[in-house]
Amino acid sequence: MSAADATILLVDDHSVVREGYRSVLQKQPGLRVIAEAADGAEAYRLYKSEAPDLVIMDLSMPGIGGIEAVRRIRQWDKGARILVFTMHENAGFAVQAIRAGARGYVTKTSPPETLVRAVMDVLAGKIAISPDIDHELALSRLAGESSAADVLTPREFEVMRLLLAENTTEEIAETLHVSPKTVANLHSLIKDKLGVGSDIELVRLALRQGILTEVDLGEG
Amino acid sequence: MSAADATILLVDDHSVVREGYRSVLQKQPGLRVIAEAADGAEAYRLYKSEAPDLVIMDLSMPGIGGIEAVRRIRQWDKGARILVFTMHENAGFAVQAIRAGARGYVTKTSPPETLVRAVMDVLAGKIAISPDIDHELALSRLAGESSAADVLTPREFEVMRLLLAENTTEEIAETLHVSPKTVANLHSLIKDKLGVGSDIELVRLALRQGILTEVDLGEG
DNA sequence: GCGACGGCCGGGAAAATTTCACGACGGTGC
DNA sequence: GCACCGTCGTGAAATTTTCCCGGCCGTCGC
Predict the structure, then answer these.
(1) Percent of chain A beyond pLDDT 70?
(2) What integer pLDDT is reported at residue A100 of this predicted model?
(3) Chain C nucleotides near the protein (CB, 7 A)
(4) Which of A206, B76, B82, B200 lies at a CB distance of 3.0 to 4.6 Å from A212, suitable for a disulfide?
């Protein structure tokens, strides 16, 4: 435990899983886990008090999620090094995470070596993406699937969010203070722009692109 | 490592997570992890060759999922003791798991002690459910939400599955060899029986009840 | 200033879908 | 036999979706 060890903050809402990170990382010389958090808010607090060299962050967590935690930490410390380590084998999430300021994205299905390698790369200032996500990103590029966040105007995106969260056209019209007709028109336009034929496909696309998570839907 | 140790098979598609189980369990005397599997098929194969006293099983895995793996193992060995350990804090999944033959259901957010306790309980022949799921189950009972699997007839359930998986009414009519009109009628009837007003709500309910998982939707 | 453009809001009408009422058929239980 | 339920389908009404339209407003380039 020399003073030169790189210090690490682990963030994951599953304690048994944190135990796994620890076990893998402590086999690696030069790394030292100095703190653990179970949600985004705690992660932010601990980052400020502990100033670790690296954060390993899960995405799906109660309260403020991982993406938002990444954003806040980066806002507080522009140089923060955050490696996202998550179960989502989903290019959409990776794009969001990197845009939010993460320096790496590794899926939990990756072998321990990949995680260790990514930790080292991020500490060395590189960007680390696990191979499966690299592949996913390439595929989505090739498929040319429209990214909802890109092709939709802010208003359309908002309506889409509400469609997925609330239910009836009338309710949305009310919260937006526009006519139900407008919402219906937008709804149709959104499906058109996104190239989906049904609401069910719309939900699937939102899930695939990480606009929505399972827990968002389940709780609603 | 006495011969009297209880032998355990770990099943989880995330290697780092298996590392976590190991770390927690090996602190407990009387337990010995003898094998690990990364998916349902491998779990089944290893169960037959290793005959462990207990299986600790994740649910969301590539290929055949955890529920199906539980079913197969129990079919092969009526006395198999399987403890489901998953991220899904979802009463629907718990019901499915128990019906498939699991002897316990613990969420990954639970502290390590809860997992250890559940392992001991299941080995002792008891049924172990983590407190959060107990609570969820109680709530869903109180809310009296119609369980899709109960209120729907087999045919209706099948159509619902197809609606969530495929997309157009025509395609489903084709695969079922019935008129599109019938599918439309069923579609309407299903929403009525389930008390949902829109397709989006239908997806949400399916997710909540564990009829569908995020990966089902994403991959479609 | 002024014209072009794009986002936003909604009306109107045609087209498609959803919903409801109804009948037929086979299987099951009494 | 008879009642009941699940399945399948028709037809017509009700509703929604979709398409086409025009107006309003802010921005950009000239």
Answers:
(1) 92
(2) 87
(3) 7-12, 17-21
(4) A206
